[in-house]
Amino acid sequence: GGGDGGGQRRSGTKMGGLNTEQWLASLETFTGAFYKKFPDVELRGILIYLTARFRDGESSELGVLRSLIKTAGGYGFVDYDSTASLSELQLDGRCGSRLLKRETSSFGVVDNINRKASQHLRAVLQGGDLGVMMILLLSQMRLKILYTKAGSGTEHVKVIGNTYDDCEAVLCLLLEFLSDSSDDQVTGSSTKEKFAASMPSLEDLHTKYGLDAAVAWMLCRPLIRKSMFFKDDNKLAGNASQKVMPAFLERFAASPDMTKSCEKLLPQGAWKNITQAMFQAFYSLSIYDILCPEERYNIEIGRLKKEVERLTVLQKGGDAARGQMSALAAAAAAAGASANEVRLATTFTLVHREELDRLKRNVDQLNKDFQRQQKRCKFVTSMLESQKEDLIRSGGSDGTFASAFMTFCIYPRCFLSPEDSLFCAQFIKVLHRMRLPGFSTIELIDNIVNAATGSLYSMTEDEAGNLAIFFNEIWKSVNSWRYDNDAFSTELKGSPGSKLSKAYAEANSIGDHSITDGITHDDFKSIYTQWHNIIGVSSIGCFTSSEYMHTRAALIVLSRIVLVYPTQPKVGDKILKSLSSLQSDDNPRPDIRATAQGYYSQLTKARDEGMWKEENIAVTRARQEKEKAKAEERKKNLALQHENMKKESEAITREIGDGGRYGRDRRDDRGRPDDRGRAWGADPRAHLQRAPPMNVSAPVFTPKVGAQRELGFADRREHDRRGGGQERDVYVPPNRRDGPVTRRQEEGRGERRKRSRS
Predict the structure, then answer these.
(1) What three-state secondary structure class fits 639?
(2) Cβ contacts of residue 700 below 8 Å, gap of 6+?
(3) Phi then psi for 709, rounded to 5 degrees?
(4) What is d(CA 411, CA 463) in angstroms, rounded to the nearest whole number?
(5) What is the phi/psi pair of residue 283, to 5°?
């Protein structure tokens, strides 16, 4: 980041500010790789420098800290390029244990970790409160990026959004790294204890450091969860005798002091609609506590077991391993490996042994993690059931709870990270399944739809990705209730979630039965259509907007929910039509054009596979027939083009022949003996007498010694003797250094060789 010339600092971004300069990107990569390779090198200096830069509100070196944690710290599995790029597999992995997250982050490809480098980096960050200091500075920098840079008017809104997203991602990465206690048994120290000693209280984070409630809870959540599940964790770990909570957790445990601190996090009016029990339960728990990805655990355990079996067979050798060794050898050879590398690839080496041991350990650990998380989810469900009466006030059916819960709980936390967005969606589902009195699921979803469609015009790319993850989970349930009568009857009908407040029922012209008994399926269909249209209108408005971020955010959200929205053809056709201008070559934004083309393909595929559930059957059949006719027409056109190309090729061949002889077809001489009794093609030198003459107009050069010589002839005098333009009979045999040899001389030598052999 330094530079010369009057102390001016080199810019870290390219012109326009959208991409990092090559020198800085290389420096980021080098820094992480260097400290991973050489963990004993002094590290505190560079971290203090980064802290000073963050204190000044400078975000250009965020990538250096990110690279240190990912590469030297071994935490690349926590990071992501963008929330929009996360697959369903990766999202499932993020709901589970740390090992499941590691195994699914790169689709089974696990990076080698330098444990010594990771421990050294964590120890330096823990010393002198340096790590927590950086966390607080990054939390404050988020607001500086939004309001300082946006107020200057010199930064493009996309640049501001990207910087904000990078800051948020590095903050989550650093928090995860500092609060991870998985190496405590190896190092013999308590990571949580050191983290708690440096972390300010929840009240101080909000009042002294100016952090909003959602971020303050996010920073304290590892310690709050540790105190909440202290007894349960000790029981699972076999330390049931330790019943007294450590002193370092007391500040973060549920207590009257904690309740008093929480009151300062929200406006006084908010507490009229939200209870302390609901507020603390929502912000204390994580996705790990309420959702166990059973299917993903089983899939990953099965995959690792297959790898164990493969390496075990290779280790034993024999007939069973031959097929596998052949496949490994073929793969190595196809990759351009040498003979030695192919041999090593088919031999059970020390690397294979280490990999086999790692896989066995991971299978055992994943089984333990699976069982542990199942118990945790059951424990949390029972805990919430026991607090059922305290989660919502008795008079909460007036419709104010849904609005307050969305404003102060769901909306602030949903945008923080992919895990938080998944938690918000699953927490709503948990409360709905509990049939919590006063919890109107319909009114809450109505608030979600209105807030989500409005926020499309004021969010960054990663926030759009988080919103898409959250909305996709919610809309899956909404779709199921709309198009599956059985699902509506068992999950929604007659439940507290289906009951409406009087104000909402009157505003939407729904009868009084919805207040006492809940809405009917026909009522829900009407509400669904209303929500569906609101999302469509907002999305099309973003597509037609001249602001880059509006269009980008809408494409990110709609691409994620393409399998569940749209389902009504009227809105779907309008969305397809609005995408035309974005896909045009006239669009000056290539990334928008590419994303729009990708979404268009996804949307048409979803439509053709029957995702537009309300499309008329006759319309569907007509479109299918039309597309079938177009496919047949394309097939005919391709066949016609192929036939035309074939005819043109044959015509060219007839016109120029094989290009070998002037005025004669060499194919006529195929097999005919020459004047020496040999067939054509038997000796390449026999063709030289009939070869076309070289260019007589070739350039002339003057050597440093000697006369002028024309290029293309071995001997100038021979060329003159033949008149310059006649067919020459001179050639230079390969590897001859004694000058040109005539054909007659070569024939004489050939006859002498024959006589000597006879």
Answers:
(1) helix
(2) 708, 709, 710, 711
(3) -140, 135
(4) 11
(5) -85, -15
Beta bridge pairs of residue 345: none
For residue 194, give the nearest of 137, 245, 289, 130 by alpha carbon: 130
Per residue in 583-598, pLDDT tens? 988 888 999 999 999 9
Q: What is the largest CA-CA distance in the chain?
A: 122
For residue 188, pLDDT beyond 70? no
Closest CA to 663 of 684, 694, 692: 692
Classify residue 206 as left (phi > 0), alpha (psi -120 to 50) or beta.
alpha
95, 288 in Cβ contact below 8 A?
yes
Q: Position 605: which residue type? A: K
Task: Say how many C-beta atoms besides its own lie within 10 A of residue 402's C-beta.
Answer: 25
| Token pair in block for residue 699 | 């350039």
Give CA separation, 251 vs 202, 258, 286, 545, in Å.
9, 8, 19, 49
Phi, psi of 681 (to 5 degrees): 95, -15
Average pLDDT over residues 503-508: 92
pLDDT in tens, 282-324: 999 999 999 999 999 999 999 999 999 988 888 887 666 777 7
CA distances from 112 to 37, 165, 175 (A): 12, 27, 22
- Which run of H or of E encompasses 65? helix 62-67
**Rounded distance between C-alpha atoms, residue 609 and residue 620, angstroms:** 10
CB atoms within 10 A of CB 400: 17
What is the DSSP code (8-state) at residue 20?
B
Q: Cα 520 to the chain's mean position, in Å?
A: 41
Calculate the alpha carbon distances from 469 to 95, 291, 474 in Å: 13, 15, 9
- For tokens 């809309």, name the residue: 475
Residue reference for tokens 């330098």: 114
User: Which of 689, 701, 697 has the alpha carbon at shortest distance from 744?
Assistant: 689
Distance CA(403)–CA(409), nearest Å, equals: 10
3-state secondary structure 73-125: CCCCCCCCCCHHHCCHHHHHHHCCCHHHHHHHHCCCCCCCCCHHHHHHHHHHH
The helix, strand and coil proportions of the chain, stated in percent and rounded to the nearest 5, come to 70, 0, 30
* Residues in contact with 170: Cβ distance below 8 Å, sequence separation at least 6, in sequence order: 62, 65, 66, 69, 138
Contacts of 456 (CB under 8 A, 6+ apart): 464, 538, 539, 542, 550, 553, 554, 557
- Determine the 3-state secondary structure of 318 from DSSP: coil
pLDDT at 88: 93
| Residue 666 or residue 519, greater confidence | 519
CA distance 375 to 378: 5
**Average per-residue pLDDT for the chain:** 83
The better pLDDT of the pair 571, 665 is held by: 571
> HSE on the CB side for 270, CA within 13 Å?
17
Place of tokens 């990771």: 118
Contact 545, 589 (CB under 8 A): no
Task: Give the highest mean pLDDT range of 234-243, 460-469, 609-618.
Answer: 460-469
pTM tops 0.85:
no
Phi, then psi, of 751 in degrees rounded to 5 = -65, -40
SS (H, E, C) 190-241: CHHHHHHHHCCCHHHHHHCCCCCHHHHHHHHHHHHHHHHCHHHHHHHHCCCC
CA–CA dist 644, 629 (Å, integer) = 22
Q: How high is the pLDDT of residue 184? A: 63
Question: One-letter amino acid identity for 290?
Answer: I
Tokens 């002193």 map to which residue?
247
What are the structure tokens assigned to 443, written together? 């009114």
Q: Minimal CA–CA distance to 676: which of 584, 600, 604, 747? A: 747
